[in-house]
Amino acid sequence: MIIKNIELIYEEADVFYFIHSDWNVISIFNEITISYPNLKFYQDNDVIRVKRSGVKHVQKDDILLSCDSIEFFNSYNLDEYIERSPINSRHEYKFLSSKTGETYSVNLKYHRLTKNSVVFSLLLVSIVFLVMSYIIVAIGPEQINIFYLFMFFISIAITAATYRVYFYNRILYSIFIVSTAFIGGFYLSFLTTFPKMHKQVSLIVMFTAITLSLANSVFWLRAYFDFLGYKTFSNYVNLFEMAKINQVYLMLAIIVGIVIIAVKYRSASDFDKNRLKWFIIGQIVGFVPFVFLFSLSLLLFGHEWVNLSFVMPFLIFIPVSLFHLF
Predict the structure, then answer these.
(1) Any bridge partners for residue 17, and if so which?
(2) Which of 68, 77, 135, 276 is 20 to 30 Å from 154 at the Cα level?
(3) Contact 200, 41 (CB under 8 A)
């Protein structure tokens, strides 16, 4: 998962100012939804413009003049104002047409699109993986693959639990970075030792995976604290690049892991094939939506194709597919 909960607003000299927002990445696009499904805005210097619109009369690049007769000069203050309002409350928006130069008003109902649904899905994933990690320790055999599976589940649970923490909470956000960075390493380490361990190959893969995770966490943490200390453009770019590198590593770990377990399935005994069959299906169902509908689109296009609250519940298929393995 990439850096989240902050948004670039404007530049003054060599210092960049960031604010808390509802986005899931460092957004160089400055886009917000303010909880309307058919209307999206973006920041154009000190002007808020329409990026996409499915609302009648509201056109692309129209300028927002006011909301409930209050003028807003940045998207954060507008979003903050709307989020304080009751669900289903109505607000009057005044726009300036970029084509005709005329002003007009529209009345829209406020819908909370993402916050509750994302929090619920993250909480559900965290609870399921915590419960499964306890069950694994309680009933699983004392083997090295059980240890790595336990750490894999714990990493996902902690990542889900800390995903919505405030960006400037150094302790919790550092925990988020470390847990996220080690998901791929623990996942590959488990797969190379399950159901059987080929000592030389497994040790190489485990050492490489854990080393890459450790390097990811160290460099990502360094970039994070450098940025908090000095909010310069170079530190911003470095933090963003480290988040992207971790996202790429996680996706590659998932893809390599599915390949590893598929290869093991081909050479496994009939007994092990029966154990691995549903596990493979669980990995595909759990990870494919996250990789292709969320992570890959974030890296390539800067925004997800579907909401995080939609893809997170699919991860539950991963621990469920392991029930019959022990």
Answers:
(1) 10
(2) 276
(3) no
CA separation for the pair 30, 23 (Å, rounded): 9
Q: Which two tokens stand for residue 76?
A: 């954060």
More confident: 258 or 130: 130
Number of neighbouring beta carbons within 10 Å of residue 6: 20
Phi/psi of residue 288, each to 5°? -60, -50
Would you place residue 219 in the very low, low, confident or very high pLDDT band (cuts 50, 70, 90)? very high
| Separation CA 258–CA 216 (nearest Å) | 21
Q: How far apart are the first and last CA of the chain?
A: 30
Per DSSP, what are the bridge partners of residue 95? Answer: 64, 104
Question: How far, CA to CA in Å, does 29 sit from each of 114, 229, 258?
Answer: 19, 24, 33
pLDDT above 50: residue 15: no
3-state secondary structure 294-321: HHHHHHHHCCCCCCHHHHHHHHHHHHHC
Can you tell me the distance from the alpha carbon of 248 to that of 83, in angstroms, rounded to the nearest whole number?
33
DSSP string, 1-59: ----SEEEEEEETTEEEEEE-S-SS-BTT-EE-TT-TTEEEEEETTEEEEEEE-STT--
Answer positive or negative: Cα dihedral of 144, 149, 150, 151. positive
Rounded CA separation 111/70 (Å): 20
Q: Which one, of 135, 139, 115, 138, lies nearest residue 127 by Cα?
A: 135
